[in-house]
């Protein structure tokens, strides 16, 4: 899709300096800009690129005054970085602006949906499912029975939403996500075999949640696994049965949270973190990447390591670990002198 500089300026509340009718169709870094692309300049380190860029349009701050002739069309705004971010959001909205029901697809008996639904090819919608307005469901997606999906939510290709799941408004579920699969529950027998414990709960995803590709969220044994509003989950995360993740918490990729653990609000959890089951993690907790959390953590704490220590203790311990060989040598010398 091509769009003129003057149209972009109206979206961003900016002023065009140059050819207002010039059109662009792609976004690019300023140093990699080509004809037909739009870029931005906010960092002074990159000022020299504006004199050589081939981008057709560059968004700049109103305060920018070129020292040399500029061939590209400029759009002057209060904050170029924020304006470009707004343009990216606008571009993404336009790109995802689809509606209609493609075939083949299946909408089962009793399922209802709102206005502006997009349902891609080879999708399945289960019985009695309720889908809100402006929902986008991309091809090869499965939505089970009795699911509820709120307004403006996007399910990307290949997502699997098991029965009874509830997903709120303005959520994004990326490709390959599985929500509502069975929790890992087995009862051991005397002969070493296992009986499966039925998992009859569900998963509740509140509003404004984003779930990265390949992430799995298990249904509760009883009750609900809950991902509360504003949570952001990265790719390839495992959330076990009956976990409760508090508002606006963010978790980076390849982390795992074991069953029945409660995580508070506004926590920041790094990649490859492992959290054992039945813990309580307070609000505003920071857990560094690759930490192993084996005990509950108080609000406003920061931990690192495996098993996780307070961040300050970890740094002190690590400084000793780095000098372990020298410390051992010194101890050997002391032992010889004592003996």
TrEMBL record:
Key words of the record: Acyltransferase, Lipid A biosynthesis, Lipid biosynthesis, Lipid metabolism, Repeat, Transferase
Alphabetically, which GO biological process terms does the record hold? lipid A biosynthetic process
Q: Which GO terms describe its molecular function?
A: N-acyltransferase activity; UDP-3-O-[(3R)-3-hydroxyacyl]-glucosamine N-acyltransferase activity
Q: What is its EC number?
A: 2.3.1.191
Q: Which PANTHER family match?
A: UDP-3-O-ACYLGLUCOSAMINE N-ACYLTRANSFERASE, UDP-3-O-ACYLGLUCOSAMINE N-ACYLTRANSFERASE 1, MITOCHONDRIAL-RELATED
Catalytic function, reaction form: a UDP-3-O-[(3R)-3-hydroxyacyl]-alpha-D-glucosamine + a (3R)-hydroxyacyl-[ACP] = a UDP-2-N,3-O-bis[(3R)-3-hydroxyacyl]-alpha-D-glucosamine + holo-[ACP] + H(+)
Recorded GO CC terms:
membrane
User: What pathway is it annotated to?
Assistant: Bacterial outer membrane biogenesis; LPS lipid A biosynthesis
Pinpoint the UDP-3-O-[3-hydroxymyristoyl] glucosamine N-acyltransferase non-repeat region domain residues.
22-89
Which superkingdom?
Bacteria
Q: How is this protein organized at the quaternary level?
A: Homotrimer.
**Active site annotated at which positions?**
241
* Task performed by this protein: Catalyzes the N-acylation of UDP-3-O-acylglucosamine using 3-hydroxyacyl-ACP as the acyl donor. Is involved in the biosynthesis of lipid A, a phosphorylated glycolipid that anchors the lipopolysaccharide to the outer membrane of the cell.
Q: A Pfam family for this UniProt protein?
A: Hexapep_2
Gene giving rise to this polypeptide:
lpxD
Coiled coil where? none
- The record's top EC class is transferase
Q: Which InterPro entries match?
A: Hexapep, LpxD, Trimer_LpxA-like_sf, UDP_GlcNAc_AcTrfase_non-rep
Q: What protein name is recorded for this chain?
A: UDP-3-O-acylglucosamine N-acyltransferase
Write out the similarity annotation.
Answer: Belongs to the transferase hexapeptide repeat family. LpxD subfamily.
**Upper taxonomic lineage:** Bacteria, Pseudomonadati, Bacteroidota, Flavobacteriia, Flavobacteriales
